[in-house]
Write a structure and sequence with these properties.
The chain has a domain of 64 residues. It is built from three helices and no strands. Helix 1 packs antiparallel against helix 2 and helix 1 runs antiparallel to helix 3.
Amino acid sequence: MAVRIEVQTTALSSASGRVASSMGTDYSQAVNRLYATLRSTNQTWRGVDNTAFITQIDSCKPSLDGVSEITDAYVTMLNTARTSYEATQNSVTGMANKLPNGQT
């Protein structure tokens, strides 16, 4: 049985745009809101317990930032794949057009 590979470059482009605009922006805004809220608790909640809470949440920041980096890398990969598939398709099309067509 033959394996069929079909790539729709418009779908790759659309997916990378959706991920970049919604996931990246929404996620970054949510993380920024979390840390803004965290800092604002200091106005109404003081003491060692608040300090411990802030310290614990701050320890998660590298992991939260890592999700943004992974999302950015995913968008880059989708765009690179799209570009590569388009270049390959153009190259194959160009070579196919140079084949003799049996006419003299």
